[in-house]
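Quick check before the chapter quiz. The format below is the same one you will see on the exam, so make sure you can read both the input and the output lines.
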Amino acid sequence: MEIWINPACSKCRGALELLDAEGAEYTVRRYLEEVPSEEEIREVLDRLGLEPWEITRTGEPVAKELGLNDWARDESTRGKWTAALARHPRLIQRPIITADDGSAVVARTEEAVRDALSRS
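Here is the expected output.
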């Protein structure tokens, strides 16, 4: 299991605390330092079953600079969204846990973290 985190994020810290309390084995990826490639983002999106705009933090200043709220959200713009996430990793929703069964979850709640734990 791998968890993508921003250490400054309280949701990330909470997810790590729960994983530790449950004795889970996991790898931490500080995705702002070890930025995922477009291919890695596409893989995680496939595992999540989501589109890139569904994991984009549109309230971030860079999202406003890029005008993301005005971008189309359809198959023709999927690559543009993925490229933006790779160039500006702060836009990626966090934390994301990739479970051992090949699935992934956006682990912003205790329930989502427990769901990932049940899959590993």
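If your answer matched, good. The domain at 2-118 is CATH 3.40.30.10 (Glutaredoxin).
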